[in-house]
Each structure stands twice: as structure tokens, then as C-alpha cells.
Amino acid sequence: MGKVGAGGGFQARLSALLAGAGLLVLCVPGVFGGGSCCPPPHPSSAPRSASTPRGFSHQGPPGRAPATPLPLVVRPLFSVAPGDRALSLERARGTGASVAVAARSGRRRRSGVDQEKAERGEGASRSPRGVLRDGGQQEPGTRERDPDKATRFRMEELRLTSTTFALTGDSAHNQAMVHWSGHNSSVILILTKLYDYNLGSITESSLWYEKLNDKVGLKTILSYLYVCPTNKRKIMLLTDPEIESSLLISSDEGATYQKYRLNFYIQSLLFHPKQEDWILAYSQDQKLYSSAEFGRRWQLIQEGVVPNRFYWSVMGSNKEPDLVHLEARTVDGHSHYLTCRMQNCTEANRNQPFPGYIDPDSLIVQDHYVFVQLTSGGRPHYYVSYRRNAFAQMKLPKYALPKDMHVISTDENQVFAAVQEWNQNDTYNLYISDTRGVYFTLALENVQSSRGPEGNVMIDLYEVAGIKGMFLANKKIDNQVKTFITYNKGRDWRLLQAPDTDLRGDPVHCLLPYCSLHLHLKVSENPYTSGIIASKDTAPSIIVASGNIGSELSDTDISMFVSSDAGNTWRQIFEEEHSVLYLDQGGVLVAMKHTSLPIRHLWLSFDEGRSWSKYSFTSIPLFVDGVLGEPGEETLIMTVFGHFSHRSEWQLVKVDYKSIFDRRCVEEDYRPWQLHSQGEACIMGAKRIYKKRKSERKCMQGKYAGAMESEPCVCTEADFDCDYGYERHSNGQCLPAFWFNPSSLSKDCSLGQSYLNSTGYRKVVSNNCTDGVREQYTAKPQKCPGKAPRGLRIVTADGKLTAEQGHNVTLMVQLEEGDVQRTLIQVDFGDGIAVSYANLSSTEDGIKHVYQNVGIFRVTVQVDNSLGSDSAVLYLHVTCPLEHVHLSLPFVTTKNKEVNATAVLWPSQVGTLTYVWWYGNNTEPLITLEGSISFRFTSEGMNTITVQVSAGNAILQDTKTIAVYEEFRSLRLSFSPNLDDYNPDIPEWRRDIGRVIKKSLVEATGVPGQHILVAVLPGLPTTAELFVLPYQDPAGENKRSADDLEQISELLIHKLNQNSVHFELKPGVRVLVHAAHLTAAPLVDLTPTHSGSAMLMLLSVVFVGLAVFVIYKFKRRVALPSPPSPSAQPGDSSLRLQRARHATPPSTPKRGSAGAQYAI
Fold first, then answer.
1. How far apart are CA 486 and CA 430, in angstroms?
2. Cα 214 from Cα 732, distance rounded (Å)
3. Is the separation of the CB atoms in 237 and 256 below 8 Å?
4. 136, 125 Cβ separation under 8 angstroms
5. Average pLDDT value for residue range 247-267
6. How many other C-beta atoms can be found within 10 angstroms of the C-beta atom of residue 181?
7. Which residue, 386, 382, 453, 455, is CA-closest to 419?
8. Which of 90, 82, 78, 75 is nearest to 26 (CA)?
9. What integer pLDDT is reported at residue 965 of this predicted model?
10. C-alpha 798: how far from chain center
11. From CA 174, how far away is CA 197, in angstroms rounded?
12. pLDDT for 638-654, tens place per residue?
């Protein structure tokens, strides 16, 4: 879960891949870069992977039927059901030949003369290393010293009956998909394609029909082949979406087709596990469609569906067979878990089984379980629904603190999960659950993991087919990886005993626990790469795997080993890697060597790998691309696909093994074999005896007979695992963990009822033992004692301490002990509203409340019953989103004078805030809870001030510049009225106009721009503030004096009064700039005795024809504008300013015209 993602982690049955899973992909290491898989012929072929993080992922549930078999996921899914046979091949780019039995990534194909010899067949029949050369000559040092224990190889060449088909004229195509439906059908469909690696698309395709041995003439370019899992006669071909979007549908096993146009592009298909005509289609634009007519008509189900997060209903858990489970994204990026009927998925008919959001890409529907993930407080939380009941939080040991989880298996009503805990990096811990999937206990620590080609997590765990409860795992101990085996679902683990002798019969000195056998458990999407392990349901005792003997697992010196007694003992069978297939229900083993060279031989064993015979299956060496076994029960026909050379066409070699048998097996050909673990016959609570063919009898088995008999065993302590909250100690006892309180009762336990009191043990799920210690170890029902409430907590559903104004917040009441059915609950939300509940069960879904105001609210909850009471408090911060921050401060100030800066917010009430201030040359910020600060500047120049406001998860900031000087002049400017018609009253416009005004003043007066600062003020009519500043060059010389400022001021006033300052706003719109006073008057000087504003006004009235004028004389060092007007409009980054009428006393300097935009 980290993310509940799909993607390989569980190494399942390789035999299922070869004998039941259907479609395969063969990748050529080194050809397409680093051994990665070949480019998929269709988008749906990409493996589903856990991202993760980190991801709560799964292995492709049985209820999931994606027809996306390239590359194959590790478990057989409904897209290719058991019994189907289909293969996808990739020819090596550049050489033309497909390296099917691909070498490990470190090996390379021969070139030059060796390559030509290989293609001619020279040296192609080399025997297993260290045994015999062709011609029967024995290699030096390979004398069999113990014939009874050595693996025997019969070197005379025998011939298998085979038939070769050539796809004549198709040598250019480099990809192929092969379908063999079997079930008394001889039809083999082959779709070959030319994939252009430069264009990244398919440019040609051909469809071949084996029964006619002819090419089907289709002009349409085909990209993919689908086969109905419940009716193999129904076939669907998908056209290349870059050319057209169509489906070709056949109901007669490919004999005829009907073409249907599509109005969307299919990315993947999901067939229904029971209904052959029901299909879900996922489009490239993340829409999900359904069809009830095998693709002939489609209906939109839902938009915004998460890739690979849609599932059919699971029979036995869902009542409606047409119910669809899906994860859909909202417009704001959240995800919901939704269910609806395939033909009626309107908004009114959709259900949301899990309330609220879930983590993206986290929905899993698998068997009877549904899993989702929800992250809160920085930690992932995992929830499970069993048989579609209400979701419950999955309970791991208290301090597991998982950061990643993968659902490995949900077989037999139990969840097997791999969890990466807080202190792990490349390993996972295995946990196993109770039936409901809620309570998990540890099965094995530090299991090795790796990353697949697509980044998906691969867990080194393998479930042995045919034997319930048997697993192999690679565990990391002190930086060494060792292989362990369990027969009881992880209750007990042990190392593998190495073989007594090697391939030649020489003794192997390997003493447990210092030395043992180690196996590669990675089941690759390409079964012809290293790390092969195979088992089969119909051959429960036989396991074939590659590995090594020593102190740890190694990637070098790899050999092949076989066990014919379910992992108790092992034999070495080859010193090089081979692919091993099961034929005749496991009665025959077929081994094909891993090599990049062409081959014409394979090895057969009729006695579970004790001896091997060499057979040729073709007269000309073949570069093998893939192998398929016959569908059905007998599995005695194998089809090999490949090329004779890099210039040849595709070749199909059908090998018939029936000719090597002269009769069918009868009862006398079998012997009983009892499953055991190191002599212990009781496995998972039962003794099981199977029928096995006698090794000396060479007869054809046919149908699988299964176990002869099964007898339950008497229960012992070994049949019980530790219950949740308990840990197994060195003496074998299960004792409570330090964090677990055994006396805590179930929340549902009420006075007069009963509960199950754990003994510290629980029976292993699916264990069939009876009697014995069963009664002693089984949880006992006890009457619920009355208890006073204890351990009361109140939290939000998402674990946060914040809520948003006007939105629902869900509060959860949690109680460790107490009678939940007889406990009165009172909740006070702290905003004048309180509620009461008769019992705790009424609050299981949470208590919802909406706060209408922002602030910090004290939420209190009190529970009472007849035996006592308890209370809890939650301080909840209710906020609303902060939209805008504006920093208000003066444009200009004098040195060593106090300056006030204020952060103005919109909206003004947003809750608890933190302010971070940066100003001057300070390297450390000032952090306050108030929105205003005061400070001084001790040097002249331009200074930047920044305020950052933190509101919840949001941080907003504003930055302003302030000029600091000992003295300056200022004057208010006005403009011709036409400027107001073009004033949108926004900060950007004011900044631009300020630059234009400054440029006009410089051009009209010739005053250097360094002396002028213009700030356009917000509001109408449009006004501005003009500042005349003393300029000092960088060397500190030529600083302007007060007299210089006086001269500049006089010049500016003169030009303004003469209408010499103007600018063109747009063609035909000319704006005049004026001094905002009644008559012409110069800017007056400042005397050094004043620190504030001083103004002298002389009024002269002339009665005969004289004009009236007003002279303003400013005797100050700084003239600061008035405070912001309270009428400032919300959302504006500047505040409306007012001009002062009177001089400001020195003791109370005025605050600046904050919010005006200026140019300097």
C-alpha cells in the first residue's frame, strides 16, 4: 500500500506461466538496453507496477482480468485463463533473430565466424557442461564416482516427432503473438508485426491461420490479439490506433471476422470472469467503457478512472455480477472508491463504499477483500473490507510504522502481506492476517526485495504449487541472503539442506547452518532469464530451481537443482541454467538450455530428474523465441517458435511427445508418496498421501489423479501461531508484546454480552488438525465485565489539527475500555454547539460538524457510564484559505527614524498565522505572531523588506523597497482627467505609469533619474507622489546638498506649472502632469532643526485685479504620507492614501503611503 499499486512482488508459479497463464513475452537482454523488456506492441502490455514509493501493491487479483499479457504478470489472470495458450515473441533488433532461450544479461551472442558456425549448426549439440561430449567421449575429470547418486545423462541422440511450419515471406516482422486454444482444437493463430523502433509504432502486420497454413489477407494494421477466457472460440483483434480505431471480432476461432468502428482508443481490456460477452475497456484518455456484446457496442461508465484500478465483481462477495469497482479522480486530484452497475452507472446510481478520499492509485479488489490506503499525519493507514462489509483499519504491530505495503496473496480467506517498515530499505517483513484481514502477525523478517524492469517491487517469496501452506523465501541476515522454507504458512522456517553429492556423484561438504542450498526465487516476465523456479499443481512433490550451494545466495556459479520430495532433499541436475517445462502432468520434465546460440536438442527426464535423455526436435539448429505446451489435461504437445537465422522467417516446430510412450499408465504403475517435512508427516494439520508414477515405468499419465487420501492430525502447539499483540519467545511461548495490553476488551463488548478472550495463540488458517491442544489454545468466550471508561481520545478523521471554515470536519471518538453500548457521550464543539449520543456505537462513522468562524476552538468530549467517566480535549484550528498578502510601509524614510511595516491580509480573518520578516542586511529573519513590526535604518540607500505569512500548508509573501535618506523633497502630482478613463486601478498598471511619469520628468527637466522617485497612488482620481532624492555616486562623492535639492525642486515645479511634463498613453491620448496646488509655488527648503513636516502658508488677498495664491513652505527632512485609508478595496495589493493637510509634529512622524507603486 504505500501505494496500493499493482506490480510484481510475489513470485508465483512459473509452471502456471508455461502451462496455464497463456501469453508470454520474451525479452532479449542487452538488445533493448540493460536487459529490459522489449518494447510492448500495445500500451496495455506494460506491467502494472507499484510506484512506490513505495506502494501498497498487489499481484493482480484473480478477480482482475486484464487482457494485458505483455509482459505477463506473475499470477495467471482471467485474461488468459488456465488451459489457454498464447505467446508473444520479440525478434532481436539489428540481428533479426530472436534470442528466445535468452542468456543472462552478462552474456553476449557470438559474432563473426562463431556466429556463422552456430547458424550452420556446428557445435550446436554440446552436452551439459562437464558430462559428455558428442560422440560419447568422456571429458577429463568427469568420471562418475558414485553412479547411484550422480545425475545420469543418456548421450545417444533420439528423435522426437515434430512438424515445422514457416511463415513464408514474413522475415521482416520482428514481433509475434501466438494463440493456441487447445481443447481438441488444432487452430493456432499468429499475429506478426513490424515494430518500427524509430517511430515507436507498428507499421505492418499479418494474421496467420495454422489450420490452413496460409496467410489471412487483412489490409488493416493490427496491433493486438485478445482471446475470451471463458470461450476460446471468441477472438478480438485490435487495430493500430494511429491508423484507425477498430475491432475485428470472430466467434468461430478466427475463421471469419466482423469489423466495428470505435470512437475511442483502447488501452487495456478486462474480461468478465464468468460472462463471456462482458468486457470493460480503458481508453487512452482515462475513460472506462463497458460492453455486454463482446465489443460490438460500448457504453461510457466513468471518466477520470485511474489506470488499472477497475475490477469486476467477485462472485460470493458481490450479489450483482455486473457490478464494477473503480477508483476515480476528482478535478482537484483526489481519488474516490466507487461502485456501480456496468449498464447503469449514472451519478445517482453510484455508491461510495469508503467514505471520503483515498490515496491515489490505491484501490485493490481481490477475492473477498477490498483494500484502500489513506495517508494522514505523514503516515499511511491501510483499510480492508472483508466480504464487502464495512471497512476496518488493518492492525499491524504498534511500532511497525510501515512506509510501504504489498498484498501478496488473499488465498484461503487470509491476507499475506509484505511490509517495509520504517527502518528497512531493501527488505520487507512478511505478515499474515486473520480471516477478516484486520489483525496481522509477523511471519518472517527481512525478506530480500528488488526492482523489476518497470520499477515494480519484486519480493523474493515463492509459493510452491500443489502444496497448501508451503513457501520459499530469501531472507537477508548480516548482509547475506539465504533461502528458507516453510510448510505451515510461515509459522516455522528452516534452511534448505544442500545435496549430498554434486552432478558427477562427488560428495558435497555443506554443514547447516553455515552452508546450505540457496535458490533464485524471481519469476521473471521472461521465463528464459536467470532466476527460474518452477512447480506445478499436478506434480506437487517436484520443484525445479536455479541456485548455488554455499553460505549465501550468489549470482555466479549458478546450477539447476530439483527436489522430488517437496523440498526435503535436492539433487543437482545441470551446471548451467536451463528452462524446465512440465509435460504429462509432471510425469515428464523437458529441459532447454539457456543460450544465445541456435539449438536443435533438448533433454527429457521420466524419473523426476534423476536421469536425462537427449532428443533432437529439429534437424536445423533454431534460435528459440518461445515455447508453449499443449492446452488441456494431457499436455503432450509442445510448440517451439523461432528462426533458423537472422534472415529467415518465423518457424513453428510442433513437437509431439506421444510417440515416446507405448501405453497409458494403469494402477500398477503408481506408488503412494506421503508429503512430509523432515520426517514430520502432519503438514497443516493433515497427513496427505499422493499417487506418483513409479520412476521405472515409462507410461503416459493423462489426467491428474490428485491426492490418494488425507487424514487429519491431532492438534499440537505447532499448529498454532501467536495471536495479534503476542510474540514468540525463545522457549516457544507466545507472550504479550510490551505495547499490548491483554486485558483490553473489544470495543463492542457490552455488559451482559460475551467476548473471546485470547490465549495468546490462534490456529493457522486452513490448518485441519482436530482435538489435542485445540481446546487449550483456542480463545474462550467470557462474559463482558462492566468497566468504567478509560483511554478516551478525540481526533479528526484525517489526523490533522486543522479544519476549514464552512466545511465538514469529522471527529472520531476512541475509547480503549468501557461499555460502549451503555456509555453516554457528550461533545462540545467549542463554538456554542454541543451534542449528545446514547452510546459509542452511534459515533463509529464519526461526528461531523461545520465551523462558521475561524479561530482556535476547544473541543471537549465526556463519556459516562454507571461505573465512572472520562474526558478528553482537542484544540482545533479552524482557518480559511489565505488569498493575498500586501506589505504596507512608507516609500521613503529618514535615517535612524522608526518605520512601521504592516502585513495586510485578504481575507482579514484566516486563523492562526506566523509572520516571517526579512529586512535590511539581516541574515536571520524575525518571526512574530503579529502582523506589524517597527524597525530603523542606520544607513542611506535602497532597502528591501519581505514578509512571509504562513497559514496552514500555504505560505504567501510580499516584498517592498524603501528609500532611506537624511533629507528629501516631495510633492503631490495630479493628471489631466482623461487618464482616469484608462485607470484599471491595479498594481501592475500603477507601476508601469510610474515609470512613464518618471521618464517624462527626466526628459522635460534634464534631471538625472537617480534623483526622482514617482509613486502612483491607488484610487480615483489618479494621483501620484513625487520625491526628490539626494543622489550619491558609488564612490561616496558628489552627494547633493540641500541647496541642490532646492534647485531641482524649483526646476520641477517650473516645468510642471508650464505644462511641460506630459506623456502619450496611447495613440491620440495625451496626458498632462500637474503639481497638485492652487497656484504656482516652489518646493520649499527643509531647515535642519525640524525632524518632521513643517508648512508655512502665506495668504494674500488683493482686492483689485490681483490673483490669489498660496505658498507652501516645507521645513522638514521627511514628508511622510498619511496612513492607509480604511476604505481600501479587498484584493487590491495597494491601499488608498490621503494627503495630509497640516505639518506633522516631529514627535509623531506620519506613516508612509503604503501600497502606492513607484518608479525609481
1. 13
2. 68
3. no
4. no
5. 89
6. 25
7. 382
8. 90
9. 84
10. 20
11. 10
12. 888 888 887 778 888 88
